[in-house]
Amino acid sequence: xxxxxxxxxxxxxxxxxxxxxxxxxxxxxxxxxxxxxxxxxxxxxxxxxxxxxxxxxxxxxxxxxxxxxxxxxxxxxxxxxxxxxxxxxxxxxxxxxxxxxxxxxxxxxxxxxxxxxxxxxxxxxxxxxxxxxxxxxxxxxxxxxxxxxxxxxxxxxxxxxxxxxxxxxxxxxxxxxxxxxxxxxxxxxxxxxxxxxxxxxxxxxxxxxxxxxxxxxxxxxxxxxxxxxxxxxxxxxxxxxxxxxxxxxxxxxxxxxxxxxxxxxxxxxxxxxxxxxxxxxxxxxxxxxxxxxxxxxxxxxxxxxxxxxxxxxxxxxxxxxxxxxxxxxxxxxxxxxxxxxxxxxxxxxxxxxxxxxxxxxxxxxxxxxxxxxxxxxxxxxxxxxxxxxxxxxxxxxxxxxxxxxxxxxxxxxxxxxxxxxxxxxxxxxxxxxxxxxxxxxxxxxxxxxxxxxxxxxxxxxxxxxxxxxxxxxxxxxxxxxxxxxxxxxxxxxxxxxxxxxxxxxxxxxxxxxxxxxxxxxxxxxxxxxxxxxxxxxxxxxxxxxxxxxxxxxxxxxxxxxxxxxxxxxxxxxxxxxxxxxxxxxxxxxxxxxxxxxxxxxxxxxxxxxxxxxxxxxxxxxxxxxxxxxxxxxxxxxxxxxxxxxxxxxxxxxxxxxxxxxxxxxxxxxxxxxxxxxxxxxxxxxxxxxxxxxxxxxxxxxxxxxxxxxxxxxxxxxxxxxxxxxxxxxxxxxxxxxxxxxxxxxxxxxxxxxxxxxxxxxxxxxxxxxxxxxxxxxxxxxxxxxxxxxxxxxxxxxxxxxxxxxxxxxxxxxxxxxxxxxxxxxxxxxxxxxxxxxxxxxxxxxxxxxxxxxxxxxxxxxxxxxxxxxxxxxxxxxxxxxxxxxxxxxxxxxxxxxxxxxxxxxxxxxxxxxxxxxxxxxxxxxxxxxxxxxxxxxxxxxxxxxxxxxxxxxxxxxxxxxxxxxxxxxxxxxxxxxxxxxxxxxxxxxxxxxxxxxxxxxxxxxxxxxxxxxxxxxxxxxxxxxxxxxxxxxxxxxxxxxxxxxxxxxxxxxxxxxxxxxxxxxxxxxxxxxxxxxxxxxxxxxxxxxxxxxxxxxxxxx
Length: 1101
Fold this sequence. Notes:
Residues 113-260, 916-1044 form the C2 domain. By secondary structure, the chain is of the alpha+beta class. The chain has 35 helices and 16 strands.
């Protein structure tokens, strides 16, 4: 409600302008009380708990010394009886239908007012003059009858009896559009103003039309276009400017001069109308020409003229309406069964009577709303009335204030009403905690009125109310004795009440005060409580000083927590300042060790009880299994209060906070280590009378419990916010001191857990290692070698591992399962290597190594588990690589070993750098056309001098290896070049070999350079290995694929450095050498050993 409204409201008061700010406060106060009540969802008992009702003004008609019966009789005679007569008169002479959908008969209305007034009376006053107040507001879309396309409309209004209209029609010689003009005399016809040149005229003119009988009368309105005589010059000018009006001009010429044009009519039967009508009505034609003639907006109301003034002793209709309204509301509330506040509802009979009375007496909506405000504001101070009802009426009064002027007497009454409500409302605001209790429902901020200014009650009102509230609560919680524990408990209860009140002020009430009256009530209340609580806490702690004990410290902890929560709310203060509770923690320093001891001992006892009842069974199986037992979960829950203690304390001093964190971390680590010990004892007790399988299962659960606990310890720094503590203490605690204290405590506890987990896993792995070794050694017995295939021999071990690992995977968490797999894999590799190297019999060694190699491959797949087990880099250890190489070689046949040897030599040739022993140059190619390998020995360079003269007699020997691939190819030699270290041979050789032979594994050309000696064995100059599959013409498709028709490849010149073998270093030769019964292998080994003897590498060694 703005200042203009209020200035206008009291502009006529004799009391002066000084009242205006106070009355602005009344309006906002009503709004404010509504917001409080909406936000608090008032219960019936709260509204009137401390209500101060306004004293009613003294009445001259009542005497204070009258007895109650006489006063009731006089009240009925002077107040109720006149109202009762007015209601009887209203029913008797009612007109129109009420706006409500429910219709009541006269007998029902009579019965209702008898029940309300408890009176019986009959009246025979003269009837009033029945009138219809008709307001012609406007019209739209009417016909344009003039040449210009517009009309000059006016309206004729009257009320006709149905017989008069019929008689008028019969008297006419021919049909005529006019009815109103000819039906009644001119004094009964009312005419509006003429609106020039418009199709949407606006009149807003009101007429009062009298009538005799509502049953047979009808309301008639006719709209006409006023025509006036116009000069010929004007007519011609219109034609010049608008040729479209020519047709209309011709029609005008046919019409009689001075005759008005009919635009439309509205005919309404009075008996079909409501008490008040405000509608748009279609203008009906007299004929079918132009059926769409627009609409007319009418406001119709049935009123009385000449109403008997003796019914209510000369009181005006507004006063009677107020009395009737208050009487109906009281009757409705008294009949309500529910104790909820009244929200403005009335029964249908009451609404009908109020509407009829207001309409018959022509009470404006403004006066009706004003009467409701006056009545409701009085009832609000004595009965259960919802605040939203008051706010609704004030809003309506504000709306109507801008629309019309209020009579002086009603202005005076409104001022008195608002003044009384202000006094009552201020009393409610002072007691807002009891009158408007808060609730969790959302505050209806939208209900707050926007005001230009407001004289708020100021902080003193809230300060005194808070002091009074605190004194009452302190008295309620006063200790009965002088026992220190009881005194502390009483203080704790009082602070809890204050904490709750501060929360409500912050979350609920402050939003209302700030929005409605611009008062930061939270800051006022908080500072007052800060002063009051600081005094109470100081007095209580002074009594305890030097007498601290565990029970007393336990009682002080809730006090500390509540004060801490209250102190945090200072962040919401609008104006900061020095608060008395700023360093309240200092008073609790003596109780701090007792709180820590209580948290530790309580947690320790809970952990011990949790282990005692633990059956060491997984908590949950199924799709989402929980593999640890109940005690692990309980331990986490037990440790959580210690972490919460750190948050609850929030100790402000950084150095003391660090020492406090050290103590809390130490306590947690002690509890964890003690849990390991008592859990091991619990396993020992439960395993005494259980089978091996149950014992293994319990051991798995224990390992999972410890792993779960280790993960909890890992999260401890985050839970205790070590990072935040480090930031706080960086100026008082050094970096090294911080990290050498807290993390070291945690690492010690984690190392204990790690040792216990490894010990348990070793216990689980012992039997598995033994069984694996048994299965592996069973495959090495002689009797099993010829009887079973490799797959069948390894099947028992794989079935056993699959079963055991599946069991462990189901019963161990992933971290522990992986920890078990690593030593189990390493031990399995160790067992396989021992068995493989301890096999003394050469007979069947290859088959046995094939089995072990297959077993190793199966074990690798099993432990890797397609990426779900151990990673490949963990599986491929150095021991694994040695074992795999050993088994791979021993699993090969002699020919495969020879091929492996030659492939290795080819690789050495390719990576060999330098020409320490010289080099030989060849020109090679393979012709597919005739399956011939052509080798042209060009020269040799830098050969070693093998003779005493410092020269050599070199020649080159060409040999195709391996022998089992080229069994029919004889070695070829060049001519001997005497006394030459850089001989030029320039000799060509051709070998008849197939393409498949050249592409076979290990196929190579062995080039050996020898020094010819006549009496002794030729000396060894060096050798080189050339892979055949890389020669021109060899790579590509195989024989029979059609490539033989292609042109022969161009020969390639190749320079091969000569090499000398290293004696006794090749494992393949040693393995071939061990196979004594194979001639081909022994021949190959003998040849290679001979080369090693001739090698210069052996001499250099």
